[in-house]
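Lab notes, practical 5.
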Amino acid sequence: LLLHEGENDLQVTARSNDHRESTLQRTLVLDTIPPDLEVSIEQNIPQPGEWVITGKTEPGVRLMLLDSVYTSDEQGYFKLYFIPPDGTEALQLTVQDIAGNNTIKTLHLRS
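Output from the prediction step:
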C-alpha cells in the first residue's frame, strides 16, 4: 500500500465464502513534514528579566520551551512570556505537530 503526503482515502471489502460482503472506508492522513516556524524573541521591557517569544507555525501544534508546553492558536500564532534561568544565553523552542514531526530553533538571549 503506497500512501502519499496528505489525505489518503482507503476502502477495504471483505467477502465471505457465501458471498456476503462488508466494506470499510477510512481516510488516513500521512504527515511527514515538520511544521514551519517563524519566531522572534525580545526582552519584555515593562517586566525586567522577562522575555517574550512571538511567532507563527501550524495551527494547534505543541510548543515546548524550558519545562513548559504551550499551544498555537487556530491561525498558528503564539506569544510566550518566560523568565529564563540565570546565566542562560540560548534556549531551544521545539514545535511538534499532531503527527509527531518536530521543528527546533535555538534562540539566543541578547540584552
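Observations recorded by the TA: The chain has a mean pLDDT of 94. Residues 7 and 29 are 4 Å apart (CA to CA).
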